[in-house]
Amino acid sequence: MQVLVRSDHHIEASLDFMTTIGKRVEEKIKRFEDHLTRVEVHLSDEHAHKGGTLDKRCLIEARSKGREPVLVSHNADHLEKAIEGAISKLSTVLERDLSKIRTH
Questions:
Q1: What is the chain's Cα-based Rg?
Q2: Would you state the CATH architecture of domain 2-78?
Q3: Tell me: the pLDDT tens digits for 77-93?
């Protein structure tokens, strides 16, 4: 399973930060790695330099073997909260999808 982390030009993110985010995603969804080929994490600041609430967004796309991609996103006032929210949502969706596979 390959995990890619990208950000828009409004997010100042170091290579270390991006690597850490990738590792956090891998840790959280490790139990699904046999079913996934690639996971893409997209970080953005929707209001750029204007400020505002819930303007940090984390969108995660998980590509499954032989299935449609799964997309989740979470907006928050801080990037860390957006990331954690999206990772949590992804884990929930993958767990639900995996249980469907097991019952068929």
A1: 14
A2: 2-Layer Sandwich (3.30)
A3: 999 999 999 999 999 99
